[in-house]
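pinned: reference chain
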Amino acid sequence: MFGINLFYTFVSMNEILDEDIAKKVPDYIVTKTETLFSPPGVFAGYIFTALGAIAAVLGSFAGILPLALGIFLSFTHYGVKLDTANKKLKQYFSCFFIRTGKWEDVYLYPFICIMRTSKSYTAYGQTSIGTDFKDTTFDIFLLDNTHRNKIKVEVCTSEKEALSTAKALANKLGVEYTVYNPP
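pinned: its structure tokens
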């Protein structure tokens, strides 16, 4: 939860409605929500980073290009910063460890919800036989009044984790937990 596991135990639904749970939510949360490239691209970036680092350590300037390409492939991502104390959020894009984005008020997004997301990737080997990888996550979104604009604020691996995180964030941010229902 919240990028790093900040809640060490899960709580029951009755406890989530308490203000004490909202106090456990930190005042400043930084969450990586999506990578720019698919998992095979990120893995290739790790390989380029390792090879470029080895070549650079051995004194070859040719290692700088694969090192830079590997860092770009592996560590470029989208994310959200939440300032729960001041009720502000910032959607950011991170490239070469530099985050860019603008701050917005949370009051523009008065609702929070959970949505199940399924992604699949296919990797092909030398024999042209594909292997499918499927990933199901439970994403937490802040929604505007019409439910048309949404901002992903957290990615969870289980529905229970997503529900407890969404309820705690709703209490901390002063927004209403709802079911996604665009007009």
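why pinned: Residues 1-18 have pLDDT under 50 and may be disordered. The two ends are 30 Å apart (CA to CA).
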